[in-house]
Amino acid sequence: MSDELKSKLVDLNDKLSPEIRDDCVIIIHPEFRFDKSFSIKNRNTEDIIEDVNQFLKIKYTKGYCLYYENHTEFLISLSDSDFADSLVRSNFIIEGKFDDDIISYEVGYISDQFFEFIDNTLNFDYSQSELVTLKIYNVNKILKIRFDDEDYSDKATGIAKSIIFEISYKTDIYLKLLDISAVKKDEEHSSKDLSEHGKLIDNKILPSRYDKDLIQYYYRAIQMIPSEFQYLAFYQVLECIFDEVFLSETIQDLRRVIESSWFNTNKDENMEELIKIFERYSRSKNDREKTRIVLDKYFKGQVRKEAYYLSNRDITNILKKLKKIKKEDDLNDLQKLADIIYDYRCKCTHSNRAFPFRTEFQGSSEELEIYISLIKKIAEKIIINYHNKES
Q1: Residue 180, pLDDT above cutoff 80
Q2: What is the pTM of this model?
Q3: Cα gap 224→215, rounded to integer Å
Q4: Which domain holds residue 121?
Q5: Between the N and C ends of the chain, which has fewer C-beta atoms within 10 Å?
Q6: Is residue 218 part of a domain?
Q7: Domain assignment of residue 220, yes or no
Q8: pLDDT value at position 331?
């Protein structure tokens, strides 16, 4: 068996130099150069070859992620922590409920395979029981993409960020994808107990539910400390679709004119009127107005009044706290809401030396955090509603 096994292992990968012992075979990973043993006691050659083959197929990005067929795993931590064990200390876990027909995920202790790669490729102080990962299942099956495809890593990362968005949206817990080679260990730090929050999560996700650009802006924003720059980062979710939404509305308006009974494309005066309408729209639609258009299309949408009020109760409460509205009916005035968030954006972006908001806000830091909470929740609504644009 020894000669046959050694020959077949070399056929499997010509970079292998297997060492056969009494009860195991030892190989050195051809890329990451660490030893791995496989039991050979009471096993046939084909089973051993298959185990080695599956091991060699594992894709690993050093200290960051690992994936193989229908299993993708990212190291994660709390976004405001520099420590890899922040989620263990916080008791934040999302238990897995698996479904073969959809992408599902769980947040829990790192797998043996992932830890083995980390332990053999990096020098670090954490034990396996201190590391938490986001495990995502069925990406290959649902997206119909091989895990060794060159685009797989980008697609899997996009899904991971969509999951982080859902967790943030539902629990207000901000997570980040972690490169463990860049973190520290501190035995003294402590975290809040978040053990109840994971129970709020339905751990299934549609792979194309969220727009990747909007998710990327949101993900970047939740990694930032509270500041005017974080407010601007959340506002970028809206700005990302300014021109798209403006163009869509302009096309709809022009189409209505063209389809009206009096309009005749063969008459120059009719065409001139159409051109004038387009030019007037182009001049009038500044960023303030585009903000209102985005809110109208993807914040309010076509929902009935009662459902609109109920689904946005948290935003109504924030606006009341800021003394910007008095009653929930005021939320119908989208121009007013647009003015509120746009005016604060202007305060954040003004760079004139004499402008009082250039380096610090006249209001308190508490007010700034309330505004950040407001724009964050609005951005979340935009992201959630945007995927329904084709329906």
Answers
A1: yes
A2: 0.84
A3: 15
A4: 61-209
A5: C
A6: no
A7: no
A8: 95
